[in-house]
């Protein structure tokens, strides 16, 4: 019984640390692979969409391993999935995240976006 509780705690801690790691990796300034004028800036609470020098949108966001779109992967609650929910009700499934690349799919349209990190830190 003791080991079962310990194992559950370790699984929770691993999942939490992975989410913390993802939260750190996602921070920064990212440039679109297809259109270098299209950029996003992700801070600890805010997601900015920028085109050239114009800010197109600003939203608060949160990361979760549960789908933020009720019609997309309805029963998803998998530690290997990651979703980004914006305050404007937009939902993205993070399909790839590393220290240099961010890929996400818009859950409504299915469009895949791929970005490369410009900097490790926001000025």
Describe the structure.
The chain has one helix and eight strands, in the order αββββββββ. By secondary structure, the protein is an alpha+beta fold. The protein has one domain: Lipocalin (Beta Barrel). It has an eight-stranded antiparallel beta barrel. The longest helix has 24 residues.
Percent of sequence in beta strands: 35-45%
CATH class: Mainly Beta
Which strand order spans the largest sheet, edge to edge or round the barrel?
1-2-3-4-5-6-7-8
Shape: globular
The ordered string of helix (H) and strand (E) elements is HEEEEEEEE
- Rg from C-alpha positions? 16 Å
Termini gap: 50 Å
Strands, count: 8
- Total discrete domains: 1
Largest sheet properties: 8 strands, antiparallel, barrel
CATH architectural label: Beta Barrel
Summing up helix and strand content along with how strands pair, one would put the structural category as alpha+beta
Helical content stands at 10-25%
Q: What's the pLDDT, averaged over the residues?
A: 82
Sequence-ordered SSE layout with sheet pairings:
Layout: H1 2-25, E1 28-32, E2 38-42, E3 46-51, E4 54-64, E5 82-86, E6 91-97, E7 101-106, E8 112-119
Antiparallel strand pairs: 1-2, 1-8, 2-3, 3-4, 4-5, 5-6, 6-7, 7-8
């Amino acid at each position: 019984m003791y080991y079962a509780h310990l194992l559950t705690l370790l699984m929770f801690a691993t999942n939490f640390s992975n989410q913390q790691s993802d939260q750190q990796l996602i921070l920064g300034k990212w440039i679109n692979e297809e259109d270098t004028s299209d950029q996003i800036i992700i801070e600890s609470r805010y997601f900015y969409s920028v085109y050239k020098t114009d800010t197109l949108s600003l939203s608060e966001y949160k990361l979760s391993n549960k789908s933020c779109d009720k019609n997309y992967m309805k029963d998803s609650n998998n530690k290997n999935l990651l979703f980004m929910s914006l305050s404007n009700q937009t939902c993205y499934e993070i399909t790839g995240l590393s220290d240099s690349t961010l890929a996400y799919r818009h859950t409504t349209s299915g469009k895949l976006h791929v970005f490369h990190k410009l900097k490790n830190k926001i000025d």
